[in-house]
Write a structure and sequence with these properties.
3-stranded mixed sheet, alpha/beta, globular
């Protein structure tokens, strides 16, 4: 039986996963929206579910498993996705002040993204590269 590989556009570092578990205990279920705004640059914005409403112009990038009952969903605006569609994003946490409305603001840590270009197999899996011969 052939093994099937599942690809994801998003991942989470151990540091960010730990912070997300702490924040979930305080704020309840969380979600991310990858910012493209002028004020927060490309900061991943973390909100309690229901505080930021996604719409038809948002793209679901994937789900983060951080050791909670429910995964943390990650979205990006469709316009921003056009710039990032060839990129894999890892959400990490580092010391610093969080973005204005993101829930990690008061913790002394902030979420950032680390990115890399998608690999050939990932490009093919997401319909962005030539099909295998």
């Amino acid at each position: 039986m052939a093994e099937t590989t599942t690809y994801s556009r998003v991942a989470v570092s151990e540091e960010a996963a730990g912070l997300l578990r702490e924040l979930t205990a305080t704020h309840g279920k969380l979600m991310f929206h990858q910012s493209g705004g002028c004020c927060d640059g490309s900061a991943p914005m973390c909100y309690p579910v229901g505080m930021f409403l996604t719409g038809p112009s948002d793209v679901h990038l994937g789900s983060l498993e951080v050791g909670l009952d429910d995964p943390i969903e990650v979205y990006i605006s469709e316009a921003q996705f056009e710039y990032w569609k060839y990129t894999h994003i890892t959400i990490d946490a580092v010391p610093g002040r969080g973005a204005g409305f993101s829930v990690e603001g008061p913790t002394g840590k902030r979420f950032i993204i680390r990115s890399r270009m998608l690999t050939e197999p990932e490009l093919e899996a997401f319909g962005l590269g030539p099909a295998s011969a």
